[in-house]
């Protein structure tokens, strides 16, 4: 019988881009077949696999490029692909690291990981269309650093990664879609639209499980999120996409608190 936790570990730890995507997507069929079990494994040795490229640099050292050139378009798409590659690792990591959570939790984040792998694959294919591939541009690992900072507390992880950092994508993606639409890049627009809709569901999963943990710990979810947002929110503010955030499980009070 397949141990889904072992399969999850393989997805997380492989450093080959193609293998990570392939293994991640294959989990969909394994879960649908329902011939496995969630049998706990050692959770002290998990290390996400990273390819040799892209070169990781500090965010301020990333060059700024305009969408008016093919290189600029590719660089922007590459940044999206890097976020999605990180997101694959983040989803498998939250399963491996917090094995005590209920089985529906693991199924939800497996679904997230599978969709993130599909997003990455679409973006990398688009890069190939433009003459590039993942790893051709530098990137930063700020999102993964946040994951490491929240690796020992499921409540904090659920607040910070899906509800603070990934939720920012709901705010900025509509503008990015418009920018690619303005230059006539329909292929990238279509990909970003798929990602945007799926990410609402991913953030919603974070919201639902964040509230579940708050209930288990008998604490007020809105107060807990307000405190964690003030502690972990990145610098700078974006105009909130209130409609998308409500769909993703944010309450009116939470939106008010972070506005």
CATH-assigned fold name: Ferritin
Radius of gyration: 18 Å
Low-confidence stretches: none
Number of strands: 2
CATH architecture: Up-down Bundle
What is the assigned CATH homologous superfamily? Answer: Ferritin, core subunit, four-helix bundle
Mean of pLDDT: 94
Largest sheet, if any?
Answer: 2 strands, parallel
Strand order of the largest sheet: 1-2
- Helical stretch tally: 11
Based on secondary structure, the structural category is mainly alpha
User: What is the percentage of strand-forming residues?
Assistant: under 5%
Order of helices and strands: EHHEHHHHHHHHH
Q: Supply the number of structural domains.
A: 1
- Straight-line distance between termini: 49 Å
In helices, the fraction of residues equals 55-70%
Task: Name the shape in a single word.
Answer: globular
Class, according to the CATH hierarchy?
A: Mainly Alpha
Describe this structure in words.
This protein has a single domain (68-258), classed as Ferritin. The longest helix has 32 residues, at 186-217. Helix 2 packs across helix 4, helix 7 runs antiparallel to helix 8 (186-217) and helix 9 runs parallel beside helix 11 (252-258). The protein is mainly alpha-helical and 259 residues long. Helix content is 68%, strand content 2%. It is globular.
């Amino acid at each position: 019988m397949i141990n889904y936790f072992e399969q999850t570990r393989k997805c997380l730890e492989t450093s080959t881009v193609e293998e990570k995507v392939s293994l991640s997507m294959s989990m969909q069929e394994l879960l649908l077949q329902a011939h496995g079990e969630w049998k706990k494994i050692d959770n002290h040795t998990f290390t996400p696999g990273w390819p040799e490229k892209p070169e990781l640099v500090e965010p301020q050292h990333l060059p700024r490029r305009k969408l008016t050139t093919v290189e600029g378009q590719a660089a922007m798409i590459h940044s999206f692909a890097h976020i999605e590659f990180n997101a694959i690792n983040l989803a498998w990591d939250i399963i491996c690291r917090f094995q005590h959570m209920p089985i529906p939790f693991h199924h939800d984040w497996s679904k997230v990981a599978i969709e993130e792998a599909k997003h990455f694959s679409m973006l990398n294919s688009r890069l190939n269309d433009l003459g590039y591939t993942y790893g051709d541009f530098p990137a930063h690992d700020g999102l993964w650093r946040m994951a490491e900072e929240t690796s020992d507390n499921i409540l904090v992880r659920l607040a910070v990664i899906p509800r603070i950092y990934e939720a920012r994508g709901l705010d900025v993606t509509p503008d990015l879609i418009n920018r690619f639409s303005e230059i006539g890049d329909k292929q990238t627009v279509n990909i970003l639209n798929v990602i945007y809709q799926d990410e609402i569901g991913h953030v919603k999963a974070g919201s639902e499980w964040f509230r579940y943990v708050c209930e288990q710990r008998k604490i007020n979810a809105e107060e807990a999120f307000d405190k964690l947002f003030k502690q972990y929110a990145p610098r700078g503010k974006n105009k909130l996409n209130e409609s998308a955030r409500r769909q993703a499980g944010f309450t009116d009070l939470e939106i008010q608190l972070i506005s």
